[in-house]
Amino acid sequence: MQMKNNPSSLLNLTLEELTSQLEERGIPTYRAKQIMEWVYQKRVTSWEEMLTLPKTLRQELNLIYPIVFPEVVTASGSRDTTQKLLLRLADGEFIETVLIPASPALYGEESDRRTICVSTQVGCAYGCKFCASGLDGFKRNLRVEEIISQVLLVEEKLGHRINNLVFMGMGEPLANFENLNKAITILNAPWGIGLGARKITVSTSGLASRIREFAERPEQIRLAISLHGATDEVRSQIMPVNKRYPVAELMEACAYYASRKKQLITFEYILIAGVNDQLEQARLLAQQARRLRAKVNLIPYNKVEGLPWERPSDEAQQVFLNELRQQKIPATIRREKGHDIDAACGQLRRRMQHEEKN
Ligand code: SAH
Ligand code: SF4
Q: For the segment 266-283, what is each residue's pLDDT rounded down to a tens digit?
């Protein structure tokens, strides 16, 4: 039926799909489980290495389900050991994946946390004014296998498994909805990467209707909202998406998500000097967080070359944080661990593109 002559990456398949496709081809279905085990448990990167499969079968399947990884162009580590991989995809586009070891006060207290920050698109169509990913517009969605291989490549480089994943790299995850959902299924599956749903966080700039759709998944996947402004006035200045989904509508969608999950929602709030760091915004942010029982992650703005925005002074950051805490809102400041390697979304790719042009 489908895909007979149309190769599909092995990393784009669920166990269920592979099983039924093998069955259609008259190949014993127990092979599907074996194959997934080679890829996700034993971590081989080619068909030749799957030694429990007959050679002819390996050759046959290699043509139908090639295993192709993006090329690791650079791997940079910063002083605090945040590591960043710049990957070149088959069509020459670049994406970034970041590994943040230990606990950057992201989502919890564990100290052995190894977080991977994954990209979902090449570029981004949402054009937030402060963000490097949106500056050059949108190129394309990442394919499922391109999302999965970020995890496999990082784990290979790291030498052990990650235990936390955030979709906070380049792109808007909920705008690549179908591939995001399938990738999450593979990440979460016991036969796949095997990462618990509670260890997966999807960050969105606020696509309210998608948030509602996403809420229908049964798993306890965490949701982070890039709020960055407590009022329409402030938010619309820096996030064009707010015109489509204003704050009130976004908050309703969040409430719906929260009602379907046991997980708390997180508000991400970049602090940008003179734009959204007024005390009044902190007060309104606290109100919204209280209503949703959300926690707040403050992120001092990470400077992007060519953009005018700056982070507030340390004191101003602290005043903002204190206001939230006084109002009993669980809030942290995320000290940018990867500051010295352009860890904020889209920055490394941009630099690479500009270097290639020159
Ligand atoms: N598109 C999604 C996920 C990717 S962005 C979203 O917007 O949520 C991941 C986070 O990085 C977002 O909260 C985004 O606002 C933030 N971010 C983007 N540029 C940044 C910068 N220069 N400094 C600090 N955080 C930034
Ligand atoms: Fe896109 Fe997120 Fe960057 Fe906004 S912050 S431009 S939604 S990647």
A: 999 999 999 999 999 999
DSSP state at residue 231: S
Q: Are 281 and 238 in contact (CB under 8 A)?
A: no
**Residue pair 241/235 in contact by the 8 Å Cβ criterion:** no
DSSP code of residue 2: T
Partners of 270 in the beta sheet?
A: 299
Domains of the chain: 10-64 (1.10.150.530), 71-357 (3.20.20.70)
> Which ranges of 10-108 would DSSP assign to H, the alpha helix?
15-24, 30-36, 55-64
Tokens 């003179």 locate to 274
Helix (H, G, I), strand (E, B) or coil at 27: coil
CA-to-CA distance for 85 and 97, rounded, in angstroms?
Answer: 5
Please report the pLDDT score of residue 352 as a whole number. Answer: 53
Outline where DSSP puts E strands in the chain: 71-77, 83-88, 94-101, 114-117, 121-123, 138-141, 164-167, 200-204, 222-226, 266-271, 295-300, 331-333
Tokens 């996700």: give the residue.
40
Check if 124 is active-site.
no
C-alpha span between 228 and 194 (Å, rounded): 32
Catalytic residue among 17, 96, 128, 178: 96
Q: Are 331 and 321 in contact (CB under 8 A)?
A: yes
Q: Which atom of ligand 2 is nearest to the CA of 127?
A: 6
Give, as one character, the DSSP assignment of residue 170. S
Residues with CB under 6 A from ligand 2: 124, 126-128, 131, 133-134, 171-172, 205, 226, 345
* Angle formed by the axes of helices 177-188 and 144-158, nearest 10°: 40
Q: What is the pLDDT of residue 350?
A: 54
145 is catalytic: no
Structural tokens at position 202: 């999807």
